[in-house]
Amino acid sequence: MTYKDRLSFGFHIPTKIVFGAGSLKEAVKEMDGLGMKKALVVTDGTLKDSSMVKTLMEVLGERAAGLFPEAIPDSSFQVVSRGAGVFREKGADGIISIGGGSSMDTAKAIGVLAKKGKEDLQEFVGIGKIGERIVPHIAVPTTSGTASEVTQFATVKDHEAREKRLLSDPGLIPPVAILDPLLTVSLPPQMTAATAMDAMSHGVESFHARFYEPIADALAHQAIRLIVQYLPVCLQKPDDLEARGMLAIASTLGGMAFQNALVGCVHGMAHALGGMYGLHHGLANSILLPHGMRFNMPVSAPRYRQVAEAFGLDLKGKTDLQIGEMTVQAVEEFSKNTGLPQKLSQVNIPRENMLEVAKLALNDPGMKSNLRRVTDPQEIVPVLLAAW
Fold it and tell me: Structure pTM?
């Protein structure tokens, strides 16, 4: 594999991974390791009465400062502000998030305000605006997709402006992540597939992101390979703990990859669609991924060889462009076999607003880190129309 002429990079993954069925019960031990005395548990309204949250609260006992169950899909500034108020009111000194990406991102944002003693998150939106580690945070994902448990990113939506805002700072990376496959067994098939395709997009986009490098490549390759092998098993046998565990690991590996290599145009477009229309992030990525890959083919075809290998394709005697197209077709077929919608028209995205979507996507950090440079929204419109 040929890399840049001047291969130079930094690789940063400070998160301790605690993996295993029943590992949720290790929460108090991990609190002790972080010097955390009282944890505010952050989750969403769907999970607040679930057995997994009840188990966590029982495990914590008096170490639980309280429960904040107000995380919502595409969390809001108002929710984060309320959460920070509860954190202070309850005398918490750390956070345990349990849920999907929105719960983990909400917890990160609450942790920023708690650390800084501020009420408004807006001043911390952007890249490197935090500048220090936030309050201790143990992330417990209940889906296998966003990998927020190992990344420096948090997304909060400005619902009035209909735009997603990104916080990016090394201080946001959770120091501990607990991956308990028992927590993902009850995830419905469509959500299992959509979140896993988010993880797939992290793996693939790490290969056509601007800061690709050998360590991220290795992590992304293994993430893709595990998703290809184990997502079909999870859809056929939802209670298969080995498959659920491997899918959780795949998601985390993908997060470690894109945490360092970053993502590309697919995420840029997905963020725009999520902001404007509330389209689920994993589903948006699933629909857009093959089209983003084709857009990047002129510069990324050699990079897709590793993706093809992860899919187990026969590459003998094939050119880079042939391998690239084979890989796109493999991604399309894999996504189709999950039963997820394949077109934006199937999820009620209006065709006539694609230029507005493209304009919003152009300014997204994911678009800026895409290996193929994009300077005009008109370059993206055909990609969105192909996905429609």
Answer: 0.95
